[in-house]
Amino acid sequence: MTFEMSDELDSVFRKVEFMTSLGATIGSLEQLSDPEVLADDHLLGWNVTRLRGPKLWRDHSATAEKILAYPQILSVFGARALSGTSLLLPGISRTHRGVLCGFMSASSYASQTRMVYGFDGSDHFAFLNYACSALEKLYSHDPRAREEIALFLALQSSLSYLVAGASKLMSPSWRDGSAIPGIFRTSTYGDAGFHDAVRDRPWLAKAVAWGTIAGELAFPLALVAPAPVARGLMAAGAGFHLGNARFMGLNRFLWSYCATYPAVEHVGREVRAARAARRASGPALPAGRTRTGPRPARPAAGGAAALHRAAGWLSRPEVAKSATAAGAGLLALAGAGALQRRNRRRRTVRACVPGRLVRLSARSVHVLDRTRGDGPTVVFENGMACPSTEWGWVLRQLPEHIPYVAYDRPGTGWSPSAGGPRDAARSAADLRDLLHAVSARPPFLLVGHSVGGLLIRSFAARHPDETHGLVFVDSSHPQQLERSPRQRRTTPVVRQQMTTTWLRTAFTPVRGRQSRDSPFDTLPEHLVGPTRTCLEDPGMWLAARREIGRWLGSWAADAGRLTEAGTRPVSVLTAGRTSRTDPVHLDLQRDLAGLSPVSRHRLVEDATHESLVMSAEHAGEIVQALAWAREEEGVHVRD
User: Fold this and answer.
1) SS3 (DSSP) at 435
2) Residues sharing a CB contact under 8 Å with residue 343, sequence separation 6 or more, in sequence order
3) Calpha distance 478→457 (Å, rounded)
4) Which one of 218, 302, 516, 542 is most buried, by most CB atoms within 10 A?
5) 3-class secondary structure per residue, 566-580
6) What is the pTM of this model?
7) pLDDT on residue 63
8) Cα distances (Å, whole numbers) of residue 411 to 387, 407, 536, 591, 610
9) Which DSSP string corresponds to 89-117?
10) CB 586 within 8 A of CB 574
11) Residue from 511, 623, 628 nearest 568 by CA
């Protein structure tokens, strides 16, 4: 196929129209091959889809009815097929191309209104390609406007890749490669052969994921890189879309996205020409001196050249020094502001400490304790991202003669962060040192909520003579990620939520409250305010983010070393709602009860993972479990 060219930009937009029209024509013919899908008694019937149409159509319902109702909508797709075919023909005039592109852009808007789902980035780019091409025809005698339109299209294309790559980079499932087999096992975008290949080869899935991320993030370099690099990036992009068309059925992406590449190539060529012209002009002359000889020709003014001239001005030594100084000053101000905000938050958190700070070696530990009493001392291990106040209702309901110690791990709650990694062995040693520092008398009845259940197993394995028994409150299991598919899928999401919350609390003003549906709002009233304040400390969420790594790397494996608790009592409380969403969870909880022949397992039907600890309604279950474990001497209680 050859293109008639009146100038370079006309050739660029002719290519944009040609490739976009290939995809649009195929799509329209596919739609016409199954017209019943648009009938009124179908899911895409106009009587349903018009309810969510944009205000433009709702305000002109009579016009919309004539265009978008069935069977009139078939005429729209028929006209699109004819217009798309016409734009594929050589020799068509610019005027006719402008009219056809305008119609394709308008009908694309109408069809996306009519079909409320099934459209994606390829359809939006097809609309954008046609709109830019039609606008370019309206400004035939304004070279600068035409250049700006080409620049706009190129920047839109580059930005779409950049945003897609950045969003994937932020996703844990993309970073670890687990998103790839998940995508290709679906019936809509799946491919059985490719799924089998990446499912059994995690390294391949990770390579595909990171290759996609790197390619999308690097694509904007096509606007400024040398020609071979720019062409390589566009070739990689075309190959990526071709692979998606083959394995995922996303054939429309190939045409609409690759149709922007002529504009990207044109802008890149303009940038390189402007850069070459500036180098050829040589360095600036001192005052009073004049240049002899012919002056190099400057490229035609355009958006890309203007951008490059701005970049050239910024690269001057004097400007660069000023910009560097200004940037350093802004960074210093930002750093000072962040430090001031962090210190203010720390002062606010310290001002509302509900317990006491105990000095332990070179750091402080926040403790809620009552060490006077009879019998075993109850020791509470919190869940992840949970301060010791999560036990507020349990501590209130404990009889006065029972001694207890609840504390915050380093960086969590009101305990400052501690240097060095806290693996399972270090955590057990820290807890033992703390118990001795507060004069807590053994034996200890260890209570662990969520990930805290792993830590009490590690402590019991190292100090069996000081352990009276174990109470697991909807506890984590050492093998839960291996045995529970749901847990494997949700763990990266939880990690991402921890990171997001850390960033939010670090870079936004203190809010002073959590969302209304926060589980911590159900705590005793005098603990709600301090806990809310504590949860706005970014250091706590950073510590929780680190604890996920320790859980995956050390805590789970070390807890698995305790395969039996002898005849020590083991009580297990399981949240019913957690078990209903993940049936494997109940099996794991039964395994915990199997650590000892002296065991008790209770399923609390209407409890969630959080409410089992933080609500007054369910805290009594924990108190009963503690009372049983303190008094038990060998009776086995079945599920």
Assistant:
1) helix
2) none
3) 10
4) 302
5) CCCCEEEEEEHHHHH
6) 0.57
7) 64
8) 10, 12, 13, 31, 20
9) STT--HHHHHHHHHHHHHHHHHHHHHS-S
10) yes
11) 628
